[in-house]
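Field log, afternoon session.

UNIT: design team B
ACTIVITY: writing a sequence onto a fixed backbone
BACKBONE:
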């Protein structure tokens, strides 16, 4: 029996909220044009780029986490990264300021890992779950597919 992949998608609410906040800052930057031009330019350019990123995140299939028997495919802003199950030792939640992310340790003994710059990776989103639940779910999937 072949397992079909599990696809987790990021919540749209967070992207919409950040899109609105960035749009407000772009408007504030425009209103600063007459009083402080350099700050206005910085604000409009920076938050304008943020607006574009959040719009791209709202496009279907721009971001997801696909889990199957081979490993995990992480897609963010249309860029895909594949991580085989044997390339990861485990998943755990980690707090970064007010945000909880799921991080994983890469197995540096594998030939595929020699070109990687770091020993630890992280997912850009928790895909509608808490960091703790996502880490537990991914550990369950790893254990399930490692035993095949």
């Amino acid at each position: 029996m072949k397992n079909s992949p599990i696809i987790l998608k990021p919540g749209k609410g967070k992207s919409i909220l950040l899109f609105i906040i960035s749009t407000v800052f772009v408007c504030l930057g425009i209103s600063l044009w007459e009083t402080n031009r350099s700050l206005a330019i910085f604000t409009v350019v920076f938050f304008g780029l943020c607006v574009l990123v959040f719009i791209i995140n709202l496009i279907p299939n721009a971001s997801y986490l696909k889990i199957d028997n081979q490993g995990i495919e992480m897609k963010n802003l249309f860029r895909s990264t594949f991580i085989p199950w044997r390339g990861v030792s485990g998943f755990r939640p980690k707090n970064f300021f007010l945000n909880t992310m799921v991080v994983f340790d890469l197995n540096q003994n594998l030939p595929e890992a020699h070109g990687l710059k770091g020993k630890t990776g992280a997912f850009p989103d928790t895909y509608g779950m808490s960091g703790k639940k996502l880490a537990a779910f991914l550990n369950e999937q790893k254990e399930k597919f490692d035993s095949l």
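LOG NOTE: Strands lie at 6-8, 64-67, 71-76, 79-84, 88-96, 99-106, 120-122.
NEXT ACTIVITY: expression trials, pending approval
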